[in-house]
Amino acid sequence: MKTSITIDVAKCQKLLLEGELVAIPTETVYGLAANALDSKAVKRIFEMKGRPAFNPLIVHIHQMEQLPVLAKDIPQKAYDLAEAFWPGSLTLILPKQDIVPEIITGGKSTVGVRMPKHPLTQELLKGLPFPLAAPSANPFTRVSPTSAQHVWDYFGDRIPAILDGGPCQVGLESTIIGFDGEIPILYRKGGIPKEAIEAVVGELRVSTENETSPEAPGMLLKHYSPRTPLMVCDDIGEALKQYYDKRIGVLSFFEEDFPMATKVITLSKNKMMEEAAMSLFEALHTLDKSGLDLILAERFPEKGLGSSINDRLFRAQN
Ligand code: TXA
Ligand code: MG
Predict the structure, then answer these.
(1) How does pLDDT run across 10-64, given as a tens digit for each residue?
(2) What transmembrane ranges does the database entry give (predicted)?
(3) Which CATH superfamily is domain 230-316 in?
(4) Is 3.90.870.10 the CATH number for 4-74+82-171?
(5) Which of 44, 72, 211, 212 has the highest count of CB atoms within 10 angstroms of its CB?
(6) How far, in Å, is the centroid of ligand 1 from the Cα of 93?
(7) Ligand 2 centroid distance, CA of 245 (Å)
(8) Does the beta carbon of 87 sit less than 6 angstroms from any atom of ligand 1?
(9) 180-189, 204-213, 246-255: range with highest mean pLDDT
(10) Are the C-beta atoms of residues 162 and 6 closer than 8 Å to each other?
(11) Which residues belong to the annotated binding site for ATP?
(12) Which residues are annotated as a binding site for L-threonine?
């Protein structure tokens, strides 16, 4: 198969209507999309990613009217969050309607729904008679793609098209919120900081570390992993001294000066957390291709997006 990296939305719509997979840009990360109402097409997503069947997929919509078609018993706080953050990096887990195929939800009675903000994907969704199921477009446990090139590096000619929307502007997967009745639960830290969610719905219950029976396997402890071993540390300069005989890559927040390192990537020289988040996965992809023995990643300040970045770094560490 010849994959096209394309900006031709109509061509991607045609492929999706035919039951094919298409990689799509979103503001968070690239997704591997198929018709959410077509179990056969959705099954191919799982096969392509090597993803276990118990790990459910997010369904992407473009207008609010689609939400009650997919989900029921929607608490007011879910509407408040949708109002505040959609379109954007927020996924809501809600009781599913019968129309949502079992394969999407991994047999669960709930469905994850998100309205993405990327204009190209909004245009794509508007011209389709169905919503799109899309996990991040990476093989299971690997680092999520934030450019069309990353998707191509992973899947090469195994998918017919990659809709190229440029580099992802948020760069971290969506924040996932579920509900126990009216009480909101944070399942995955992500592109919208916890504090911003709390400003809308009050305090959250946090449930991001349930390893044995993952509600959201974004929680699986090994996840987002480069092939190169990675270690999170507080003092990179000190850690470098221990590994003087190794080829070390450094991933730092804003400092640039690490003479003992083989390669240094600084995520935001101006200490801008949004910029750091946006550049994180690109940096991990680059370091992973640099023939290093070890990546030393600096721990971020544990607040706002820094907390979401730390989450990804800790899961990448293994
Ligand atoms: O930003 C994003 O969310 C990206 C873009 C493409 O939209 N998608 C993404 O999908 O990160 P994925 O499949 O890589 O991660 C989705 C997470 C998984 O951890 C999955 O377990 C969880 O959402 N999830 C989906 N439906 C769920 C459900 N019904 N109950 C609990 N967790 C659910
Ligand atoms: Mg993923």
Answers:
(1) 999 999 999 999 999 999 999 999 999 999 999 999 999 999 999 999 999 999 9
(2) none
(3) Threonylcarbamoyl-AMP synthase, C-terminal domain (3.40.50.11030)
(4) yes
(5) 44
(6) 9
(7) 34
(8) no
(9) 246-255
(10) yes
(11) 51, 55, 110, 136, 144, 188, 224
(12) 28, 60, 114, 134, 174
Q: What is the pLDDT of residue 210?
A: 56
| Ligand 1 nearest atom to the CA of residue 220, by list position | 19
The neighbour count for residue 114, using CB atoms within 10 Å, is 27
Residues 106 and 54: beta-carbon distance below 8 Å: yes
CA of 261 to the centre of ligand 2 (A): 30
Query: pLDDT tens for residues 194-250?
Result: 999 999 999 999 998 754 445 555 556 666 789 999 999 999 999 999 998 999 999
Q: Any idea where the domains of the chain sit in the sequence?
A: 4-74+82-171, 230-316
